[in-house]
Amino acid sequence: MANDQTTSQDSAMDQPSRTDQLVFQDPVSRYPVIEPPEQQQSEPGLDADMYPHADIGEHSYRGTGRLTDRKALVTGGDSGIGAAVAVAFAREGADVAISYLPAEEEDAQRVISIIESCGRKAVALPGDLTDDAYTGEVAQQAAAALGGLDILVNNAGKQVAVESIEELSDEQVEETFKVNIQAMFRITRQAVKLMPAGSTIINTTSIQAYNPSPTLVDYASTKAAINTFTKGLAQQLAPRGIRVNAVAPGPIWTPLQPSHGQPIEALPDFGKQTPLGRAGQPTELAPAYVFLASSESSYVLGETLNVNGGTPSP
Description:
Blueprint: H1 2-13, H2 16-19, E1 71-75, H3 80-91, E2 95-100, H4 105-117, E3 122-126, H5 132-146, E4 151-154, H6 170-191, E5 200-204, H7 217-237, E6 243-249, H8 257-261, H9 286-293, E7 304-307
Parallel strand pairs: 1-2, 1-4, 2-3, 4-5, 5-6, 6-7
Helix pairs in contact: 3-4, 3-9, 5-6, 6-7
């Protein structure tokens, strides 16, 4: 029963007339309420192996030229929210470099292909965000390959659900903070040296920063830190003409969820607790990032845009 249902959901996501981001539509029914069967992947997880597949905008995001000839680096750009952002940026006219783990090559190549199909330059930068050497040079690599850098999206993250504090190891806490916080500091520190006035930095935080799940204590803590980082850095860089903002997703169907990001038994009800009654698709986040990257948001700094299906948040 679940397999039949999710197959029809995949089919529905391939219908541009229903999911096109420029078409007037009911947000409740834009996407069906998914009921993912219980499934588990090893970290980091692949969209290619996820059921149902997520909508990253390949058939639903059109774009209107709002980022023409911009140069962007998106971490975690192989799947999920990062992939949707990379696709949207390309559809808006930007050249895009994506950072991702080597194990995510299959998903990354799909995103690279979509970017190139838009007539834009795509750059693959595989590496591990726990590797200080990699985080210290990935911004320079992106700028060298793209011919500049004026958008940085700090999106990559580690999320592993653990039932109790007694089971939460020092190793996991350290790795979660290294990927979600330390890597962001290191990449941003290098990127700002390369970014001209008018550039933008967008960080991915989470509803977990405001309403933490009991199984995601370490992850939620990093997301709260990202909010504070965003507000402080926005003030520091404002005189240089570099704007810093953040996007806070709610429950979005990405490979993070079936790769230990949620308890397996919770997957069939994922996202149903939102006022819209469903999980979000990655492409539904993309317009928020496009807005913050574009000159349309020139007077927006230190802001967090909540894209969470209606869950109240500060």
